[in-house]
Amino acid sequence: MTRCPCEEEVLRRIRPTPEERAYVRAMGERLIEAVERSGMAKAMMVGSVARDTFVRGDRDLDIFMLFDPALPREDLQEKGLLLARRVAEEFGAVWREKYAEHPYVNATIDSLDIDLVPCYAVPSATEIKSAVDRTPFHTRYIRAHIDGYADDVLLVKQFAKAGGVYGSDHMTEGFSGYLCEILTIYYGGFHALIEAAARWRPGEVIDIEGHGRKQFEEPLVVIDPVDPERNVAAALSLSRMFEFAELARGYLREPSETFFCRSSSPPLTREVFARLLSTRGTHLFSLAFATPDYTPDTVVPQLRKSAESIRELLERSGFPANRIDTCMGEERCLLLFELMAGEVPAMRRHIGPPVWSRENAEKFLLKYVGEEVFAGPYIEDGRYIVEVPRPFTRAVDLLRSKALFEVALGKHVRRSMKQGWAVKVGAECWDDEFAGFLSEFLGRSSPLARIKRTTGR
Length: 457
Hints:
Blueprint lengths: L4 H10 L3 H20 L4 E5 H5 L8 E8 L5 H18 L3 E6 L3 E7 L2 E9 L14 H11 L4 H13 L14 H11 L2 H8 L6 E3 L13 E5 L2 E5 L6 H16 L16 H11 L2 E8 L5 H21 L4 E8 L3 E8 L7 E8 L3 H12 L5 E6 L2 E7 L5 H5 L11 H8 L3 E4 L9 H8 L4 H9 L2
Parallel strand pairs: 2-5, 6-7
Antiparallel strand pairs: 1-2, 3-4, 4-5, 7-8, 9-11, 9-15, 10-11, 12-14, 13-14
């Protein structure tokens, strides 16, 4: 299909230059040679550089060191880290250990961000011993099927990046690079994917190799062509899926370079934040505590679980929420609750069992006859009703109380909060460290709405 002029212009900007491509590949070959010279492992480039689907300026290079599958897991970690550190030091790199399913080394060499990752050289992706063992098979599959679609993948990735839906990390819950590649190959290019995405519905299933064995529950199911037991789109949330669909509809209606450019608005100031908050008439509360010393993939799901549990506690206590959100900072984490009420009456109406449910009704009556209540128990439309005092009439008191530890907090969140947490109210929730997060919370809009508001169309 003929590309529109805006796509050609975008490709001119994002396609890696021949010099950049040659430089990154040459560095990869040098690293592979250094690994294999050790005699400890084979090596290969994986990821978008190896697949020739990286966007200009992306300076990430992934080198996987493939060890004998007979090697025990503890030895893989020990020998893998030893070899990775040795290779990094041979290149005079600044390096650090990082942790995913098992440890690896991240190094900076000549402005390139390089991961040296130990894995097992398993015979097939269905025989993996750790999640990273699958990655080399992804690289081989895409390289074998990418012919003619490399530019289309670049457009898809840039489209997703600009729309804020690129990245399979727990914070983004969006499209991974591999997912973009599989979708592009399956549909047959950028335009065909965009046209299909505009028609997506929850439960969409894509099975490029016709495996069709296992059932998945996620909103978009893309069976991994190298491992039929895995959904490539498992990390994709329903919201990100349909933000992409919304962008696709907008682009088909009016193609524009705007869809490939992420417009970044400066964060609000403290004064503007306070003014906007006052016009909403809602009640904002922030809860901050020290960031647990774990990766975002571990901490972020726990933040979301904790915030949802606290929301349920607030709503059970009479404080309905409009929206909640979470943010993991380097030093502190923030849970944000926008409530429709900050205070409630001292009395709460509690509905009991129907009187004809004799055993339950008698237990209810005995319990509340012996307690201090405002009224009741009395019978209304055949059920017992009692009017009882609330433990908390102000949301801020509840959020500052140890009642929070009675709900299902994430393990590391609970441990961190045990060391102390701070609750702020209203305009006092403003925090320079979280300026971008707080600004986006108040100005939340879908990607297409943001584009329309920016362009005035």
